[in-house]
Amino acid sequence: MAADAMDTALGLLGHLPEGSLVIIKDSLAASGSFLLHHYISRLLAAPKAEKQTPTSIDVRTEKSTAFDGRVGKVPCKVCLVAFDQKFSHFANVGRKQGVNLVANAEEGALRFVDGISKPFEWGGVLPRSTPCGAVETSESLESFLEGGLQELSITGEPQSVRSASPSAPQGVVKQIETSLGAVSDLSDQSEAEAKQNKRAPLADGGLAIVFDDLGGPEAACQGSAHEVLALLNWCRTLRSQNGERASVVALVHGNDMPDGEKGLASIMEHSADLILQVEPLSTGAAADIHGQLLITQRTNKWMDHLRKGIGGFEATKLPRQQKFQFRLLETGVKLLHIGGSKGGA
Amino acid sequence: MENVVRSFKDKALENDYFNVVIVRDSAEVLGGPQVCQHISQELLSVVKKERAQARGTVLLALERAPEEYSHHLNQSSGSETEGLEPLQVLDCFSDPLGWQTSPEPDSSLGRTPKDETNDVSSVRARNQSQRAAEVGSSGQEDASRRMSSALGKLQRGGYSKVHFENDESLEGLKVGIQNAGEALLKDAVEGGRLALVIDSMSTLLQYCATSKVLAFLEWLRWSGRISTVLTLLHADLHDARTNAAFERLASTVVDVQAPPLLDERGSADGRIHVRHKTKKGKVRHEREQFWLETSGVRFGPIERTASVAELVAEKSTSMQSGRAPPSAKTATTPEVPFNLELSEAEKQSRARVVLPYEHQGDGHEVKIYDGRPALSGVQARGKRDGRIGYESGDESTVAAHNDKLKNGEVIESGQGHILYMRDSDEEPPDSDEDPDDDLDI
User: Fold this and answer.
1) A165 and B111: CB-CB below 8 Å?
2) What ipTM does this complex have?
3) CATH architecture of the domain with residue range B1-8+19-78+87-96+155-261+268-298
4) CB contact under 8 A, B99 and A170
């Protein structure tokens, strides 16, 4: 399966539709983090030469070449909220996939909100219960994790907002706000310009907020899923400079609760627009196939996106559900049609 | 679907009937939100044409951003009338827990709430120019803002905001609905009512306890201002008790189901099963299939002949609802090219057969051949031939039976025959011993 066809299947047609929620649901048997890396690198990838003035002829050429998925792809600002891996991990994987995350962070296209180095700062769980002791714990952890904090400095000043909020996701909200505030600081001069261009949505690729593990905030707010839901909702109401609402990509572990209770993943599934479910092979391990991927479109968002967005896609009707097998490669991932040829095309 | 749309035109009676439409789906089934949206568009057009008792619609956006609904609903109503939409959207989506509007004071960590609000709002002002106008930065504005947030209503971006934190009795939501209702019914005649669309009851249930939500619905019923409530419920997220509570409350339940696996035509994206309870208590069932299309949902009748699984499902639902099953014949017999039915004559002769372990003589002694010489010694004759016949109430042998057949006589004994053939003469008689000889039914 060609790389562009794969991106179409994954909903990566240019930027993500505004306000959309992509849920990557994995399990212990098959990790879905490879999709996160794929999304991050594709959203940040910026074929700058493709930008064209929209004359009628150019529009036609856009239509004809639209299927290779490169036209209309505009750099998207990404805010990566990490609860599972450190920035160095993402940078390493990104480098293999051909995207320099460090350079992107310096340019301001990528913002990194660190949820693991200073867990009690974003969480605010301990301050709520034992205010005095918590500060000490937090400080000792701070010094313990100093190595990690050094790395963070590439995203600008270290996040010094100590959460005064009673709930954990609220702390995350503050961190994201501070982080994104820095984004608009960088481009204050162009803000008036951006206002003028509000009618042209392709001028800016919009804003995507990527959560590498929703289990972090869920655990921090003691398993109350509604706070995590509220966090994601809040993220989707943020607006990028072109006035579009931000889209959210989040990884959630789909293992069911022991007592049959519906976990966070089931709740998230209902509010998601696109669900990517990563499953192990039912026949067990295989040498060249690492698992299967079920892609479900729950809403019409992508169809609407195609309808009003990029020409040339109109003819395609995206199937509601697609199933692929995937193979993990050093440089990324390859999707294969089930029962397809050996090695896939 | 017709019944659902017709029910929107029903009048709610004073303190009595009000129309609750629940669309039920689960994570495995696609199309629940789309079906709900389709129905809400129908509702909106009925309200707009003033065919319903409701004169305005209030939409609670819980699961999706309010912008998405206004976009869709405007699209559906088209440009036939340029007048004001009789629709108010309450934003329960962007800040359901009141994080932005009411920061709690926490001096132990050295930041006053005022600092924080200013910080947040200034970030927001830089970041989101649209919202900047509404978010104040001076202390006075701050105080008034917090007051308005206590009422659960904060105008931002054209949508009234509602949040649920520390709001056990959903007062903020009630106030929000009342305010929206007042705005909608300003010009309406006295006694005008509202239609309420809740885009996901399940999300509301995430924020509040089930009992509170049910009490809220009761409040809606007795408020006398609401004629119709339309909502979507994700059945798989709740336990059976919660689902049952909502089912009881509903006058119409639209179950969204996956298409059957072995659908030969295979084109439909799913099916709906509508159970509609009329005002008088009659229950109507309706089944349709639907196709999800880019422009919306298209409904159509289920055309092909019903399969066994469906009929069984239908039978079970009809048994649950106390309706008589359609007919025993259609319910049990699949359509096959050969005849499984018995003719009348066959049925009669079948009915005449007396099984060997049944009581045979009315008041006579029960005689079941067990391989041993009969006490009366009469049956021994047949046994010698290696062929054993038995006719109840009368000593007759196979030979006699064959004779009768040869003569073309019709056996009119009133009862059927069962002929037992022994495998071979070498077998000792005991091998034929009936294991059920002590069975006496």
Assistant:
1) no
2) 0.73
3) 3-Layer(aba) Sandwich (3.40)
4) yes
